[in-house]
Amino acid sequence: MKNLLYIAAAFLLSAAAANAQNSFISGTILTLHEEAPLSGVSVQLYLDDVLVDELTTAADGHFNFTALTNGETYRMELSYDTPPLQGLSTLDLVFIAKHILATELLPTPHHMIAADFNNSGNISVLDIVRLRRVILGIENPEGEQWVFVPQDYGFDNSPVLSDLQVNSSIENLDIYAIKRGDVAN
Ligand SMILES: [Ca+2]
Question: Looking at the domain 20-179, which fold is it?
Fold first, then answer.
């Protein structure tokens, strides 16, 4: 009987270890064009729609959320505020046009996300029309202008920020801050 109790206790301990709050998620927010650390980005971490932690990046662009529970799936939400026209120019229109005409394709999936100015899921002449009107000051951009996408996006097993399953610590989760319309370097 003593042995059985011991085994039960050991099992409980190992189960507790598996659910221990000892994992972390860390990484850096980077600009798309210069790959420079970005400060002032608000990063929030949710578990089951409950905010569990939040921070604003400093000059090193770094974030680190600790004491996370293994086996849980967290959601990261990021936001950043800049004037609507920042980073936008007629050169962006040229790059998007070249991509549509296939004379010069955009180099990465992240650039393609930037080119989808109206957030329709594809790159078309409508993006050029809308972006041109915004650059000319005829209309304001609609919706969230910044999109945050892991550097590994487009590759196998690329992390999804809305669905971060923590089985062990996630390190070096580097994330590009992409401004819609800001395609050209
Ligand atoms: Ca589009």
Answer: Immunoglobulin-like (2.60.40)
